[in-house]
Amino acid sequence: MRAVIQRVLESSVRVDGQVVGEIGKGIMVLLGVEEGDTEKEAQYIADKVTGLRIFEDEEGKMNHSLQEVGGELLAISQFTLLGDARKGRRPSYSNAARPEEANLLYEYFVEKVRATGTKVEKGVFQADMKVSLINDGPVTILLDSQKVF
Fold it and tell me: What's the chain's Rg over C-alpha atoms?
């Protein structure tokens, strides 16, 4: 499972011109589910996202987590994070999980983050989404449950 997390001042997602998810200060997560991922990988990413100390303390040092600052989270499913562009010019998505499996683990991730008391908004799985955000910092972190980076 892969995630791109961005610390944001605000973020929203639209489908067919309608806002379907919107947050203030917090984290926007793009989440890609890989073939073979399980609830274990989703739990790992949920724990990392909510526990990473990427919010500033009183001295301006990144020392607080999403939970500590009472931040919100916007979760967007994005299978293209599993694109392999090492060969040729067209990425291969053969490592991405099948939609049925991916949606179950995406929803599991959302459930686990909500269980921490964090407000979670989300996009619409498999929809053509338009995502807006104001990246705070900018702070952008890449996560991979297999720890390849």
Answer: 15
- Answer yes or no: 43 catalytic: no
H or E segment to which residue 99 belongs: helix 99-114
**Which residues on neighbouring strands pair with residue 76, listed in sequence order?**
30
* Active-site pick, 55, 79, 109, 118: 79
Q: Which residues contact 127 (CB under 8 A, 6 or more apart)?
A: 15
Which residue among 6, 50, 55, 78 is the active-site one?
78
DSSP state of 89: S
Q: Locate 2 and state its tokens.
A: 């892969």
Residue in 38, 80, 126, 140 annotated catalytic: 80
Nearest to 114 by CA among 76, 145, 75: 75
Q: What is the pLDDT of residue 65?
A: 98
- Any catalytic annotation for residue 55? no
Nearest to 55 by CA among 12, 75, 23, 25: 25
pLDDT single digits (tens) 77-103:
999 999 999 999 999 999 999 999 999
Those residues with Cβ within 8 angstroms of residue 24's Cβ, 6 or more apart along the chain or in another chain: 9, 10, 72
For the whole prediction, is pTM greater than 0.90? yes
DSSP bridge partners of 74: 28, 121
